[in-house]
Amino acid sequence: xxxxxxxxxxxxxxxxxxxxxxxxxxxxxxxxxxxxxxxxxxxxxxxxxxxxxxxxxxxxxxxxxxxxxxxxxxxxxxxxxxxxxxxxxxxxxxxxxxxxxxxxxxxxxxxxxxxxxxxxxxxxxxxxxxxxxxxxxxxxxxxxxxxxxxxxxxxxxxxxxxxxxxxxxxxxxxxxxxxxxxxxxxxxxxxxxxxxxxxxxxxxxxxxxxxxxxxxxxxxxxxxxxxxxxxxxxxxxxxxxxxxxx
Length: 246
Ligand code: ADP
Ligand code: MG
Prior knowledge:
This protein is of the alpha/beta class. Helices cover 35% and strands 26% of the residues. Strands 6-7-8-3-9-10 form a six-stranded mixed beta sheet, with helices on both faces.
């Protein structure tokens, strides 16, 4: 894992009327890492992704991709720079094949030269979907749809992938398969920021863990450091592991 930060967030704040959804949050994500963001429901995890991808403007603070401020940039511009997002609710073109869905990602996304066929093939392989490439997306299981969503995001040639609860609602086998996909994504050189509730998966796959509670960053460290942090343990007491966003 290289030490260069690919993403840096400085004093980021998002207020929804009276609610501070993200409050003075600062951190950096090392290129080539898997960084997980954990925290109870309503902690601000999805809002953080919305701020990084430009879906929402911050109330205050800055977001840097590599050394460039992307604060306030429109979402398509941020995607063209190389930040991809895997949505939890995949909405594929159900009548198109799996490969055609991924190809759409390859046609858009990051600016610059591309080999659409090759990018599509590589993204399908990374997501473990090669065997289903010619099937219509409508035949995919929920777990396979999540893989398709990752493949589509990777096909945009993103250098940073944000995955918001890619394992939510998946069974243990499907969860393990998704974690394997994320490992392969990292191995391919793409940095991953993951929101996940399944603590064994988080602790196993993450190089680094950020803990949000009520919009504040209460811990930032290795899985071992974070799981030994008394504030983190307190924040999780009484919080069911199975808690998931709607
Ligand atoms: P998490 O993903 O950690 O469960 P969210 O980021 O979705 O949390 O939400 C953080 C807080 O911000 C919650 O209280 C939520 O209701 C609120 N919130 C999120 N998005 C909006 C929005 N667009 N408008 C108003 N409040 C929002
Ligand atoms: Mg969320």
